[in-house]
Amino acid sequence: MLKWLFNVLQLINHGMTPSFLDEVREVTKQFFALPMEEKQKYSRDAESADGIEGYGNDKILSEKQILNGTERLHITLNPEQRKLKFWPENPKVFRDILNDYTIKLSMVIEIILTAIARSLDLEDNCFLDQYGKEGKMNAGFNYYPKCPRPDLVIGIEEHTDAAAITFLLQDNEVEGLQFQKDNQWFKVPIIPEALLVIVGDQAEIMSNGIFKSPVHRVVTNSERERISLAVFCLPGFNEEIGPIDRLVDESRPRLYKKVKNYVSIYLEYFKQRKRPIEAVKI
Ligand SMILES: O=C(O)CCC(=O)C(=O)O
Ligand SMILES: [Fe+2]
Which residues form the Fe2OG dioxygenase domain (predicted)? Predict the structure, then answer.
């Protein structure tokens, strides 16, 4: 049984040992601790499909945004779509550990999408079918340095995720992630052995709004740096997604259009500081 709170859950029986999760955190920390020239070997470049893959800082999208020093590394995990030039070779075990993590998460996403279907009394495959055989897993490694003015500087501005489901591995010591509910922000407690499962916009669309992708943000910390690893599970870009037929009826009319490649719509709206899901509402 899935126990959602604010459309987020802390998953503990995921088949990965606490020491394996610590190894994933450790290689993340080691990568960000490398000298800048070393990290820049994996810099984003213009030729990457959406300009997101690779290492870099946050892009400044509006005048109000304050430089936050956050560093990120985005990598496509699916074996057939990998661009190894963005996969760090330092620390030495980085690629092996990330490969193991990919294999394990590909099993967990199937289980979660099936469990979501069952929780709504639907056929097991209805979310999985929309996720499709070409479902993509994109990893986003985040590094938030110590920040002298956490009152002024945000680590990640409030947003929802474009994915169907996000798996978030949080830092095992430093908090920072917060979810919004009823205009208040709530901290996510750290459970080191847990993976945080977050409903993304595309699960909101498929479930015809029964699930809602929660707004979240990351605050900075003046004492401690923080890392996290988000894996975004995205339906294949050629896959059309939309509300599952059995979730549409007279009492619950269709709320969202059918859509392909939601990520590109998401990025466009995000840049304009509009909530992306509005783009596909009927
Ligand atoms: O760093 C975190 O805890 C959350 C990161 C996040 O929300 C994201 O990458 O979309
Ligand atoms: Fe997020």
Answer: 135-235
